[in-house]
Amino acid sequence: MIYSLRGTLLEKGDNFCVIECANVGYKCHASLNTLSSIDDSKEVFLYTYMALREDSCELFGFKEKDELELFKLLTGVSGVGPKMAMAILSTLSVGSVISAIAQEDIKTLSQSPGVGKKLASRIALELRDKVASKDGSSFKTDSGKIGQVAAKSSKEAEAREALMALGYPALVASDAIAGCSPDLSVEEMIKQALKSMAR
After folding, report:
1. What contacts 24+ positions apart, CB below 8 Å, involve 22-29?
2. Burial bucket for residue 133 (CB in 10 Å: 0-12, 13-18, 19+)
3. CA neighbours within 13 Å on the CB side: how many for 69?
4. Does position 139 have pLDDT exceeding 70, yes or no?
5. Which is more confidently placed, 96 or 118?
6. Cβ 8 vs Cβ 19: under 8 Å
7. Who is most buried in 8, 37, 119, 149, counting CB within 10 A?
8. What's the average model confidence in pLDDT over 185-191?
9. For the chain, what is the largest distance between any 2 Cα atoms, rounded to a whole number of angstroms?
10. At residue 46, does pLDDT exceed 80?
């Protein structure tokens, strides 16, 4: 099993990248969040997950370990395959997905393409016990802590919804809000996000 890749970026598409390691190019399916974090001019490091089936062998790449762990949880849900999990992680940040599952926020989960309310409800139902609240500031799974999503998570969700109501795509809104300080109020997050997107 390939645990990770470190090498040079050869190509980057809408939902994949090709990393050259020891003269071999590995095609990795990746979320928009991971792809947007890859710098073309620098060495690339990705955690990986290999999906083996009778008729295919696909590699999925993740910039952060938290994203990989959440991907594994999502693909464990009935009806959620690797590509569906990637669509969810491309639409929402890791913290937003965890927060939505913990709070059973079906509206947020169903923002991803192909995820209807029925599937979103199943995701929340099957994963809410695996994604447990810890001290109100972080979440953990059976394999340990999966990500820091402090009080900022609920504020992020509220600010993101406000930006989406203004017509911004979910990923654009999430990226803009991700750069905001956790100490800001929802209103201040929205203002800062609008300024960053206007640059």
Report:
1. 26/2, 26/59, 27/59, 28/59, 28/60, 28/61, 29/58, 29/59, 29/60, 29/61, 29/82, 29/83, 29/86
2. middle
3. 17
4. no
5. 118
6. yes
7. 149
8. 88
9. 51
10. yes
Q: Which two tokens stand for residue 70?
A: 């959440």
Q: How many C-beta atoms surround the C-beta of residue 127 within 10 A?
A: 22
Looking at residue 144, its pLDDT comes to: 54
- pLDDT above 70 coverage of the chain, percent: 87
Cα separation, 156 vs 153, whole angstroms: 5
Residues near 139 by beta carbon (within 8 Å), at least 6 away in sequence: 98, 102, 131, 132, 133, 145, 146, 147, 149
Strands of 132-134's sheet in order across: 132-134, 138-141, 144-148
The answer to whether residues 46 and 122 touch, using CB atoms and an 8 Å cutoff, is no
- Reported confidence tier of residue 162, pLDDT bands at 50, 70, 90: confident
Sign of CA dihedral 43, 1, 73, 12: positive
Which run of H or of E encompasses 11?
strand 4-12
For residues 70 and 130, is the Cβ–Cβ distance under 8 A? no
Q: Which of 34, 4, 8, 32 is nearest to 20 (CA)?
A: 8
Q: Which pLDDT score is estimated for 72?
A: 92
Give pLDDT, residue 171: 66
112 token code pair: 């991803």
Q: Would you say how long the chain is, in residues?
A: 199
